[in-house]
Amino acid sequence: MSAPRSTSRRAFAAVAALPLLALALTACGYGSAAKDDAPKADVTTGGEKLSADTVKIGYFPNLTHATALVGIQEGIIAKELGSTAVKPSTFNAGPSEIEALNAGSIDIGFIGPSPAINGFTKSKGKSLRIIGGSASGGVKLVVNPKKIKTLDDLRGKKIATPQLGNTQDVAFLNWISEKGWKVDANSGRGDVSVVRTDNKVTPDAYKSGSIDGAWAPEPTASKLVAQGAKVLLDESTLWPDNKFVITNIIVSQKFLTEHPDVVEAVLRGTVDTNAWINANPDKAKASANAALKKLSGKELPAEVLDPAWKSIQFTDDPLAATLGTEAEHAVQAGLLERTDLGGIYDLKPLNKILKAAGRPGVADAGLGVK
Questions:
Q1: Could you tell me whether strands 245-252 and 108-111 are parallel, antiparallel, or unpaired per DSSP bridges?
Q2: Which element (helix H / strand E) includes 42?
Q3: CA-based radius of gyration for the chain
Q4: Per DSSP, which regions of the chain are E strands?
């Protein structure tokens, strides 16, 4: 088993992307293409309009972005916005979503920790804020059971991660380090061969035998299991309370300043959506799959959808301490250098909403705006 993370789980308040990884930090590693697929119609429910005519929301067509998938599919977010229209856009990679946020093509986005950190640090803290959580978990180490039966058997094997420096890549490199094994982070060569492979082609790579397993997000992990792979480790077991951030909600600082009422309305919608997902898991799973079918042209089969869905927790808490720890792991791997992450969070709107609902607030781990 891997070594304890007691020393590395502290909230870490500093990290900045090296030039090598400026474009490598994708949102949770779901694909590397940078396409923006904007739906044709805006969504509105009528009623009172807020300070903006439209709010442009970006997200990925992935299960870990189900807060957005379901919230838009079921009209829960639009309900809170009244006559302010929702204009959704989907992306396949974190850098393209950050670019869209910086350009004003979207106002609010659902995104993973690595691109959020990268976007914040590259702009010297001026581009975005993390304003809420969306999802935790949904990452597994899956392997060929004929070649790998225990965690120690990974030594000398070829294990895929989605991309150099992405969230799963950093997690796997940190796990390798805690085992006492050596791997050159940039080349992936060492006691384990870390093979950077786009999630879209990982199942084919596994089927061909060019990789022996993968440290992969959902639904890629469950796709491999459907091909005969075995889950050897669920990453959530390595974290306190089995929780770690996989998807955040970000907003451009300009939009937050100019339209705080719209931001609050969207957050009310995401809080309501997460509550509905957790109260109606089967309906929510079907809704997310229906949204995926609209966006990609095909739905996930039950053998992939069911286990993938079970491994993801939907939460309003951004789990700020785990973002700090993930940043620390990247620094320790030599992929990132330190800088100040203070101000990356602004959780005041979310905590206002939670307080109004009689719920406890969430913490920013000392990384919030002053």
A1: antiparallel
A2: none
A3: 19
A4: 14-17, 36-37, 54-59, 85-91, 108-111, 128-137, 139-143, 158-161, 193-196, 213-217, 230-234, 245-252, 312-314, 336-340
Query: In this predicted model, what pLDDT tens digit does every residue of 216-258 receive, in sequence order?
Result: 999 999 999 999 999 999 999 999 999 999 999 999 999 999 9
User: Is the full-model pTM beyond 0.70?
Assistant: yes
pLDDT (tens digit per residue) in 273-312: 999 999 999 999 999 999 999 998 889 999 999 999 999 9
Triad 3, 7, 9: Cα angle to 5°: 95
Q: What is the pLDDT of residues 14-63, one digit of tens each?
A: 443 333 344 444 434 333 343 444 444 455 556 677 999 999 999 999 99
Tokens at 112, concatenated: 């993973």
| Matching residue, tokens 């739906």 | 39
3-state SS class at 182: coil
How far apart, in whole angstroms, are the C-alpha atoms of residue 199 and residue 202? 5
Q: How far apart are CA 108 and CA 358, in angstroms?
A: 25
